[in-house]
Amino acid sequence: MDSVTDLFEQLSFAQTAIEENNYDEAKHYIETLFNRLNTISEQQWSQNRGALEEVAETLTALTGAVVDEREKVKQELSKLYRNNNKLNAYKSHM
């Protein structure tokens, strides 16, 4: 089934985007994959169940990876912001 091959190709693109820290692109591929999975017919699911379940599991893991990475970035930015505020306070007292 060509559409299953396409799904795996889209998964590969999403994984590459995550590895390259390109989360906007990864989000695009992940959203596209979710939309495509939601439009697959019952017949296609039954004919390609194993492959489609693998796509769905990998997609769930990728989504989690993006969320985890964004949270790490958010925490780092928060830490930098706090340190910057401390530095500015120190400078203003000198």
Structure report:
The chain has helices at 2-19, 23-38, 42-47, 49-92. The protein is an all-alpha fold and 94 residues long. It has a single domain (2-67), classed as Methane Monooxygenase Hydroxylase, Chain G, domain 1, CATH 1.20.58. Helix 2 runs antiparallel to helix 4. The longest helix has 44 residues, at 49-92. The model has no long low-confidence stretch (mean pLDDT 83).
In short:
This protein has four helices and no strands. By secondary structure, the chain is mainly alpha-helical.
Helix content: over 70%
Tell me the domain tally: 1
Terminus-to-terminus distance: 70 Å
CATH topology: Methane Monooxygenase Hydroxylase, Chain G, domain 1
Q: Assign the structural class, choosing from mainly alpha, mainly beta, alpha/beta, alpha+beta, or little secondary structure.
A: mainly alpha
Annotated CATH architecture = Up-down Bundle
Give Rg in angstroms: 20 Å
